[in-house]
Specification:
Low-confidence stretches: 7-11
Radius of gyration: 16 Å
Strand order of the largest sheet: 1-2-3-6
Strand content: 15-25%
Order of helices and strands: HEHEEEEEEEHHEEH
Distance between the termini: 27 Å
Mean pLDDT: 87
């Protein structure tokens, strides 16, 4: 596990920094890249680099963003890039439905553009501070994408021969159906690490 920084010191992603981080991951042989960021602009620099990654079978797990918006009507990138190695992930809540805040859906979604959901509520994570690692909880699609990236890594470890599209297929087919998600993503499911690993291992 490594971190390739994409942010400026004062926050926010820059186009060169993101492109360089993706290229760095590709050059060192990364197989799974967590993309917990997104923007409305469909930048050719990003899609070119991720297409190069597809040749090396890199899986890009992309957060779909927050705001409760339908990405079928208003896409966000890289989650909505039409590449076979991009896995768009929405965030699910404690009840397995879409992540909500006071009953309002806060995860973006897309019946056509988003494949599956992953847990994104009150996930324990680390934050910098005081010269040492501190712990907190997070609830958003960036967190859900990170969870999905970890599951993808487990599946890949169970069967290293899986290509990026095959890995996406396993994650989608072994996910658990959630009735409420049927209107928010293509599969209407939330990923299941146990079932995905068993499928990949041929058990």
């Amino acid at each position: 596990c490594l971190r390739a920084r994409t942010e400026k010191v004062d926050g926010g992603n820059t186009i060169p920094a993101v492109t360089e981080a993706l290229a760095y991951a590709r050059k060192i042989g990364a197989q799974i890249v967590n993309c917990s960021w997104g923007q409305r602009a469909r930048l050719q620099e990003y899609i070119d680099e991720m297409h190069r990654g597809s040749v090396q079978e890199i899986l890009y797990v992309a957060a779909v963003g927050n705001g409760g918006q339908d990405l079928d009507a208003s896409p966000i990138y890289p989650a909505c890039f039409p590449l076979p190695n991009v896995l768009p992930i929405l965030a699910t809540g404690k009840d397995d439905g879409p992540l909500r805040l006071i009953r309002e859906v806060v995860t973006n979604f897309g019946k056509k553009s988003v494949l599956v959901g992953a847990p994104g509520t009150q996930i324990l994570t680390t934050v910098p501070g005081g010269g040492r690692i501190q712990y907190t909880t997070a609830s958003d699609t960036s967190t859900a994408a990170a969870v999905a990236s970890g599951v993808a890594a487990l599946v890949k470890s169970a069967n290293p021969a899986l290509s990026a599209p095959e890995l996406i297929k396993v994650l989608g087919e072994t996910a658990d159906p959630v009735a409420e998600l049927s209107q928010y993503c293509r599969t209407g499911k939330r990923i299941n690490a146990y079932r995905a690993v068993l499928r990949a291992a041929g058990k």
